[in-house]
């Protein structure tokens, strides 16, 4: 897929409807239409915006969060499902790529999930945050390496990570090695205070420089009334302020437009894709500036599943070259695998000569 010369990106800083999934979904659909009306090709929403980020888990101990946790389950998004169908239809109708953070419900578990809808409305990437952070581990399960991929979209090659996944340099490198042109970052916002906003800015600007790509980051916003609704204790409620840094960063590490740090709004910027080559001519972290014979990354990109059928429990050895004597080769396929053998790359070798 040919990458466009210019992409108009929209990063949405927005508050959820804390009462229902339907209310927050309506705000998403309205924001997509508004951004598209401003000529956007790409629309990015905050981390787990549907139905809302689990702020309750940050300010209350686990023993007090059962009711809100269950309510999050009741309002979570099934993928695919009615909500994703409506968002996909909006992406298709307006001809925009949409990146949306959701609380995904998969039977009895919740996941921090990033969804990429292409301009056709198709979900081209569903990935789960690989390691929820601190309080989040009481809310979400862990993702896997299957989601660490860059996908071709109408706006070019696009990769995504959520929040503190950006502190995992190997996760970032996995996307860099797949040559992302636009990196989408998503953070909750309205959390921790100004120090969080400062940390977000450092993180996304560094990734843009290191990857040689554009970074489009969206953070959420809470009104004063919403903060009070989440946490009546005024002292604890202080932890639900600041931390907003909706921003669009160039491959040279600078803001394309001034960031949005207060209130709701849509940040719009035109991305000149030629700047990617300008940066990489000088420093390509996964090309001429790399030393793969010294340092390289191994990614297990298999989906994590709780059960595999017996047919998949043993490898197909028919295509594996055997280096031992012919009589040993006749019985190699029947030999039991030693405990701990990596069945993806099982290779039997004969005695050394």
UniProtKB/TrEMBL annotation:
<dbReference type="InterPro" id="IPR003010">
    <property type="entry name" value="C-N_Hydrolase"/>
</dbReference>
<dbReference type="Pfam" id="PF00795">
    <property type="entry name" value="CN_hydrolase"/>
</dbReference>
<protein>
    <submittedName>
        <fullName>Aliphatic nitrilase</fullName>
        <ecNumber>3.5.5.7</ecNumber>
    </submittedName>
</protein>
<dbReference type="InterPro" id="IPR036526">
    <property type="entry name" value="C-N_Hydrolase_sf"/>
</dbReference>
<dbReference type="InterPro" id="IPR044149">
    <property type="entry name" value="Nitrilases_CHs"/>
</dbReference>
<dbReference type="InterPro" id="IPR023919">
    <property type="entry name" value="Nitrilase"/>
</dbReference>
<dbReference type="GO" id="GO:0018762">
    <property type="term" value="F:aliphatic nitrilase activity"/>
</dbReference>
<comment type="similarity">
    <text>Belongs to the carbon-nitrogen hydrolase superfamily. Nitrilase family.</text>
</comment>
<dbReference type="InterPro" id="IPR000132">
    <property type="entry name" value="Nitrilase/CN_hydratase_CS"/>
</dbReference>
<keyword id="KW-0378">Hydrolase</keyword>
<feature type="region of interest" description="Disordered">
    <location>
        <begin position="308"/>
        <end position="340"/>
    </location>
</feature>
<feature type="domain" description="CN hydrolase">
    <location>
        <begin position="7"/>
        <end position="273"/>
    </location>
</feature>
